[in-house]
Design a protein that fits this description.
It is built from twelve helices and 19 strands. It is α/β, with parallel strands linked by helices. The longest helix is centred in the middle third of the chain and has 17 residues.
């Protein structure tokens, strides 16, 4: 075939095992190759629980002993070749960042060095630094496994992500997170000055300010990522998802361990602030713009300032004509702070007689003297046709 048909070299032939390859083989010795005939993300449906999706990925998209033959890496290479052939102006870029490398670690090290290099350190030194850290098995975090799971988290949770190559090259949330993993490894080894420099470069380039000491699990997605701030003692569990402008900070009152601890499968919306040394339980969801100041139970949904747990709506209980133990569905009643009091109010607590209005035959009901909040009396009769319990203030509905 002519050179025109193959403008880019295929993956290089496997070479003799070196030190780095032996480390890779050690890490992956318990994993076996599962061949597939199509991209793995097409075999996976987007799951409501990230852990379920990642369990399927780990089972079906396992790495192999030879990094050059890793299914994830081969898929990224294939997509890079397609992009280069479709957009000739991107050919040189695809060759430098993807097609000229043997493995995802080599390509990522080169790409991060290109992004973060400046006058403080030349690109070549950054590249060597990333390679030295990413090719070392870390007891606290298997970095290469984290790279794979972070990429697949984006592909399976972000509906805007069309292929792995785009996420690998262009998603600053992914790139900033991988650079932080390197900074965290440096910090745990006592190389604090270099970790601080890397943190500063990540903040300047990717708009993500993450302290090098912060601990972040695998399968984590930072969507958009701009404005993310994570404090020194923060901990993030596996398979969490974050949007932009999220702060995991201190409350300004506590020294030492002062930042939030997030469990697994936590979803955090845009503009959320979680402050203080508090625990956010597994599977919790934090609505956009919320400020969380207290512990969050597992599986809870929190919204508001300050954040309160959303109570699931309960179906109203029907009553018989006798009116015994009857309840009335009044709609969502505000408590004055944005929270919801209840969807049901017992007839025994209403100063509207002993029977719910729908059961009253009369057009009016004697409610007694109802205070208007200023010492005056509103009325001794309220028309049953016009009474809307959802609009009455709480002092008229609930006894102290």
């Amino acid at each position: 075939m002519s050179l025109k048909q193959h403008p880019f070299p295929p993956a290089r032939m496997p070479r003799a095992m070196g030190v780095g390859d032996k480390r890779q083989a050690t890490e992956d010795s318990l994993l076996s190759e599962v061949p597939t005939s199509e991209p793995m993300y097409r075999l996976l449906s987007r799951s409501a629980c990230p852990s379920v999706c990642h369990a399927e990925i780990v089972a079906k998209y396992r790495p192999v002993h030879d990094p050059a033959q890793c299914p994830l890496w081969l898929e990224i290479r294939a997509q890079a070749e397609q992009i280069a052939q479709a957009e000739q102006c991107l050919g040189s870029f695809m060759f430098r960042t993807v097609l000229n490398h043997d493995s995802i670690v080599e390509a990522l090290s080169y790409h991060l060095a290109e992004q973060l290099g400046d006058g403080s350190m030349p690109n070549m030194q950054w590249n060597k630094l990333f390679m030295s850290v990413l090719q070392t098995c870390d007891d606290d975090m298997h970095l290469r496994m984290a790279i794979r799971e972070d990429l697949l988290a984006i592909r399976t949770r972000d509906a805007a992500c069309q292929n792995l190559c785009d996420a690998f090259l262009y998603y600053k949330g992914f790139l900033g997170l991988q650079a932080h993993r390197v900074a965290h490894s440096l910090w745990t080894r006592g190389r604090h000055s270099l970790a601080r420099l890397l943190q500063a470069r990540i903040s300047n380039v990717f708009a993500m300010d993450i302290h090098p000491a912060a601990t972040i699990g695998r399968g984590v997605m930072f969507d958009h990522a701009s404005g993310v701030v994570i404090g020194e003692t923060a901990v993030i569990g596996d398979n969490c998802s974050f949007l932009h402008n999220v702060t995991l900070g201190g409350n300004g009152k506590e020294p030492g361990d002062r930042h939030p601890k997030l469990g697994r499968d936590v979803s955090v919306g845009a503009g959320v602030s979680i402050l203080g040394n508090i625990r956010v339980g597994d599977g919790a969801k934090i609505g956009a713009g919320s400020v969380v100041l207290r512990e969050v139970p597992p599986g809870a949904t929190m919204v508001g300032i300050p954040a309160r747990q959303v109570v699931p709506k309960v179906a109203s209980t029907s009553s018989d004509i006798s009116g015994s133990a009857t309840t009335m569905d009044t709609g969502d009643l505000a408590d004055g702070t944005g929270g919801v009091v209840s969807r049901e109010i017992s007839a025994a607590t209403l100063n509207l007689g002993t029977l719910p209005l729908p059961l009253l035959g009369a057009t009016t009901v004697d409610t007694g003297d109802l205070a208007d909040g200023t010492g005056g009396v509103v009325s001794r009769e309220i028309s049953a046709a016009t009474l809307d319990l959802g609009t009455l203030p709480l002092p008229l509905l609930v006894t102290p």
